[in-house]
Specification:
single chain, alpha+beta, nine-stranded mixed beta sheet, six-stranded antiparallel barrel, 24 strands, globular, binds zinc ion
């Protein structure tokens, strides 16, 4: 099978050779377009006038729309979507709300990178029905490969809106000419472009095994839209026509605003109010005639496509007619200003949609953005608060995305913490660097220092200078770092082993979705057996999935020790033998099922309790529910304090005592998403047309396949045991529920009783004596001298005595008694 890149290249040739078949030639001819080939890049293109080059800024000499306004209509950023969506509504497309930039529904990416990503993979694959057959969407996207270009070229963004025009239709409803005409109409009537002023490129697109021809809309050197006709899929037996025809048109919202207004940069058109405010604060002045000249050539500085940046600066300076130094002096502060504006918008949208800067995974890129922005503020010594900038963005964007204003408090808090972390790193880094700079620093080393210690390269250069050394930072430094972190780490289903013999069995009917205690006994037929592994036609046994561990029990006289999923089959591991074709009677261990249900429902309760106490950024990052205990990993930026844990525990128990109903039902995916939002994917992306929705009425709604209680009161009691940080953006909370919580309560009472005996005091005096004993012990150890002792301190501690002692002794509750005994022993021994 070809890679996407190879496929694209190959199909571009095929499509161009058979262009009459793949493009809307009749329509183009009727409109007066003819076909030409660019002598520079060889691309075939369509234009109303004879041209030698294709109109791409690289082939045709910069952005010409900067010099001469081409669009009759001038659309500001807010108007672009309003006008576009109105026009397409009249053409039969449903305008829908954007999806979050955190792509929880999509197992292949962390962040939404294109408008079509909202419908990948399940809608595009035909597995799930689309929300509408024809729709348009203003989709915020995040992409980090161009970080270093942001601010400089005037056109690059990490956070942008891709306006999508999409169709998901059967072959007989597919009309490529109509798709094209609709977009063409937008260019002519919506933007007010003369057809003499744009050109259309023949190209091909490939991704995720699908491919098809596409047509790119260029005007004034700028690519504004790309209309892809996804028609084929690669299979081992050769290329196949897709059953569902997918129209994937993506248009740069920022580009339309920029192009139609002819502002200096795309940033001025995208965030006009923010640019104005930042200029007032920084007093950066724009030399407009020089900037206009510069912007026509700024594309030459695209770091993706050049090797020697200094050489390109020379080239651009020559075109502009000034020295390289004076050009840089004028341009670099603006680069800083625009980068701050761009990055703060990216952070606003990402954090507001539930992402957190981190030291791991794709979210590491958010930390890069934050630090790059702070780097500019430091470098130019500007008095700018990033959060303020975020606020201005939210205010400006309110007509399109009012939700951004609602989450500002949470965004503020996260940025504050992130800034604190940055400061700490800077302090720490000075010491580290002194040592590291003794040896030679390569680019790889520079990346590693940034990656493992969080020390930005600018700081390394500064420290090096102090020591009389010179270090060069590669221009695409942040892109290099970002590459290393872009992979998605969410693994949803644990596949235990694949048994070949079971591959072609029909799917197992799952009987465990109803009432968690009603479905414990069943009759079934053995479909196949391999060693100790058995597949039935139906089963009540819950297989390990969604973080919940499997049921156990019996099949006839055989013990069931493990249950797991193999695709749509459920496999039972048994002790003993069963014969293929036999009818069996199965029953599930009730105590275990009950405890697992308690732990699972408690997990959902705690998830939202944590969100209520800590903020809207909290989402589940992982979870595990076993018989003995459970944990939930939540996204949060720092360790939890005792008081936060207490608050979460109290709130969770309040929900238990409120006796809220827990409803379970299957819903169509789109209906569920529309009704409850994308936050239902707390456990990660889930395939299928129908989703099982677990709704704790008035509290929490998640799509989840687990066995759940019917009412929160059945949880009995929730006890949080401990929490610890497992990465820079994820905290684990361990807890027990129900009987297990009672057991832990009981063992707590036991600990208290033992301590009152060992320390000869009442319960409220325990912490003081515990402290006294600990200090005595430390003294004895230090002086290595035995001591006759009697504990004398008095106390009247109010609160959780066991927790307090664990804190004093820096140990786990279960080790307290043993530790105290050891102290008493050792003090007497010397
Ligand atoms: Zn060309
Ligand atoms: Zn769940």
């Amino acid at each position: 099978m070809l890679t996407d890149k190879e496929q694209k290249k190959q199909f571009k040739l095929i499509a161009s050779r058979n262009y009459e078949q793949y493009y809307v030639v009749d329509f183009l001819n009727k409109e007066g377009f003819s076909r030409f080939q660019c002598f520079k890049c060889n691309t075939y293109f369509w234009s109303t006038k004879q041209k030698e080059t294709c109109g791409d800024s690289l082939c045709s000499g910069g952005f010409t729309f900067m010099k001469k306004k081409l669009a009759k209509n001038s659309l500001d950023y807010i108007q672009v979507w309003k006008k576009f969506s109105q026009m397409f509504r009249n053409l039969g497309y449903e305008p829908i709300n954007r999806y979050p930039v955190v792509a929880r529904w999509n197992p292949t990416m962390t962040f939404t990178i294109a408008s079509i990503a909202a419908f990948q993979p399940y809608v595009v694959s035909g597995e799930v029905e689309p929300p509408f057959k024809k729709l348009v969407i203003p989709q915020f996207c995040l992409r980090f490969s161009d970080i270093d270009n942001v601010g400089l070229t005037g056109a690059h963004f990490t956070n942008f809106i891709m306006i999508g025009q999409h169709q998901f239709v059967e072959e007989d409803e597919w009309d490529q000419e109509e798709c094209f005409k609709h977009l063409y109409g937008w260019f002519v009537d919506g933007m007010g472009l003369s057809k003499d002023d744009f050109v259309l490129h023949e190209d091909a697109w490939a991704g995720g095994g699908n491919f098809g021809p596409c047509m790119e809309f260029f005007s004034g050197g700028l690519e504004i839209a790309n209309q892809v006709y996804m028609m084929y899929e690669q299979t081992p037996d050769g290329d196949k026509k897709l059953r569902l025809k997918v129209l994937d048109m993506g248009m740069g919202h920022e580009r339309v605003a920029w192009f139609t207004q002819g502002t200096l940069t795309a940033y001025e058109a995208t965030f006009p109010t923010v640019c104005k405010k930042l200029k007032e604060i920084t007093k950066v002045e724009v030399d407009e005639p020089l900037m206009r000249k510069f912007m026509s050539y700024a594309g030459y500085l695209n770091l993706d496509e050049i090797d020697d940046i200094e050489h390109e600066w020379e080239r651009v300076a020559k075109e502009v007619g000034v020295s390289k130094e004076s050009l840089k002096e004028k341009i670099l502060p603006l680069q800083g200003l625009y980068s701050i504006a761009e990055h703060s918008r990216a952070l606003l949208v990402a954090l507001s949609d539930g992402a957190l800067p981190s030291n791991v995974g794709g979210e590491y890129n958010l930390r890069i953005l934050f630090r790059r922005a702070l780097g500019f503020i430091d470098k130019f010594n500007w008095n700018i608060k990033l959060f303020e900038v975020c606020k201005w963005h939210a205010e400006y964007l309110e007509p399109l995305f009012p939700e951004l204003l609602e989450n500002l408090e949470s965004v503020k808090k996260i940025l504050e913490i992130e800034e604190q972390k940055y400061k700490n790193t800077k302090e720490k880094s000075k010491q580290i660097l002194n040592k590291l700079l003794q040896s030679h620093i390569t680019v790889a080393k520079l990346i590693e220092i940034y990656d493992s210690q969080g020390i930005p390269p600018e700081l390394v250069v500064m420290e090096a200078k102090r020591l009389g050394k010179e270090i060069r930072i590669p221009e695409n430094f942040y892109a290099l770092v970002s590459e290393r972190h872009d992979k998605k780490e969410q693994v949803h289903q644990t596949k235990k082993l694949e048994i070949k013999e079971f591959e072609f069995l029909p799917p197992t009917k799952a009987l465990y979705y109803g009432d968690y205690l009603d479905n414990l006994e069943f009759n079934a037929q053995v479909l196949d057996v391999k060693d100790n592994y058995v597949v039935l036609d139906q089963t009540c046994f819950y297989p390990t999935s969604g973080g919940q561990i499997n049921d156990i029990g019996r099949l006839d006289s055989c013990e069931v020790v493990d249950v797991f999923k193999q695709n749509d089959k459920i496999v039972h591991e048994i002790k003993g033998t069963l014969k293929k074709g036999k009818r069996v009677y199965g029953f599930v261990d009730r105590a275990r099922r009950e405890q697992l249900a308690k732990h699972h429902t408690a997990t959902h309760i705690i998830n939202n309790a944590a969100r209520k106490i800590l903020g809207n950024h909290v989402n589940q990052a992982g979870a595990k529910k076993t018989f003995d205990k459970a944990h939930i990993d939540i996204t949060h930026y720092q360790s939890l304090s005792e008081s936060e844990l207490n608050k979460i525990e109290n709130l969770a128990n309040e929900v238990v005592s409120k006796s809220l109903k827990v409803n379970k039902s299957f819903m169509k995916r789109f209906d569920a998403e529309r009704k409850y939002g994308m936050d239902i994917y707390q456990g990660g992306a889930i395939p299928g047309k129908e989703l099982r929705i677990v709704n704790i009425e008035g509290w929490d709604v998640e799509c989840c396949g687990g066995t759940h209680l019917n009412n929160t009161s059945e949880v009995g009691n929730i006890k949080i045991l401990r929490s610890n940080k497992i990465s820079d953006s994820v905290v684990r909370i361990e807890f027990v529920a129900g009987l297990k919580a009672l057991e832990s309560e009981e063992s707590k009472n036991e600990i208290v009783t033992r301590l009152t005996e060992l320390l000869s005091c009442n319960e409220d005096g325990i912490p003081a004596r515990c402290n006294e004993l600990f200090n005595l012990w430390k003294m004895v150890i230090k002086k290595k001298k035995k001591l006759e002792f009697k504990l004398v301190s008095e106390g009247n501690f109010k609160g959780d005595v066991v927790k307090e002692c664990a804190r004093i002794l820096k140990t786990q509750p279960e080790h307290i008694v043993r530790t105290i005994k050891r102290f008493i022993d050792e003090i007497g021994k010397f």
